[in-house]
Amino acid sequence: MASRNNRRATPQPRRASKAQVNIPRGTTARPPRTVGRPSPRTVSPYAKRDFGSAQPRVSTVKVGSLAQSQISRDARVNRSYRAHMAKVFVLLGVLAVLAAGVAGVYFSNLFSIRQVTVSGVEHLTSTEMTQLANVPSDTTLLRVDAGAIKNSIMRDAWVADVDVQRIFPETLNLAVTERAIGAVVEVSVDEGKSIEEWALSVDGMWLCSIPEEGSEAAAAISPKIYEDKAEVLAIKDVAYGVMPEVGTYCNDESIVNALDIVTGLTTDLKNQVKTVSATSTENTTITLDSNIEIAFGSADDIRDKERVCLQIMADHPGSVSYINVRVATSPTWRTT
């Protein structure tokens, strides 16, 4: 056993101060930190490196679990597909029922046409319209061929347009737009031995031959035609050889020129015109109710020619018998 003196005599190792810590060789001492400037981050040579923490985590799944997951996914897909197909079949069934119902109504006698009405007609009789429309007796508002009926009615020269209207439950209405008479043309027939009067529309179509009023043929046409004849102008002195045909457009230049003059005049002069002579385009002559003859010529510059005629008659009231305005800028006239 050592004595107290021996223990005291045993030298103790001196503790090194912080300033005297030995730094292993090969390492660099940490530089002193500078106030205001961050020191670069350094790794302590004494820090314990853990390389195992950087390795990816690996989990294990049993093969049976993967197979079970795939089976569940396939089951969900199959259920979704069956539900979708069920909706499709239901929709197809509804459409089939609707189609059957529509077909049943279409081919049934529902909405049978029991009444045919006509509007907008003044120059065609009810008998003529019935013959033109030719609506089948066994048809319905659903099965009626509106296009065929329209084409049939449009064959008549008086008809400019027609609208076939279905009025449920049982009426078919024919809304007709008629052509208007622009003039009555006196046409020579039988080698010039007789005259026929023809209605000419505003757009130049031959409408019909106008029989003598009071005759048997006159009783078969609409009275409105004779009312219009009394209001429109007559085109006379047409050259022999003009052959009107119902439903065709007039191609005689002298008649077309006269029609353009008749329809182009304004009320001030038109109301005074009695007849229009159409021997040729350049020799077209207007005769007024006062028996003043106006050599009008072509239908060019109608407004200027009309203005000159009215001015001459105003300057020489009751004394003018002839006016020539074939050239509107160089008119001539004759007084009695």
UniProtKB/TrEMBL annotation:
Residues 111-179 form the POTRA domain. Keywords: Cell cycle, Cell division, Cell membrane, Membrane, Transmembrane, Transmembrane helix. GO terms for cellular component: plasma membrane. The keyword Membrane applies. It is found in: Membrane. The keyword Nucleotide-binding does not apply. The chain crosses the membrane at residues 88-107. Its main location: membrane. Residues 1-48 are annotated as: Disordered. InterPro entries: Cell_div_FtsQ/DivIB_C, FtsQ_DivIB, POTRA, POTRA_FtsQ_type. PROSITE patterns: POTRA. This is Cell division protein FtsQ. It comes from Slackia faecicanis. The lineage of its organism: Bacteria, Bacillati, Actinomycetota, Coriobacteriia, Eggerthellales.
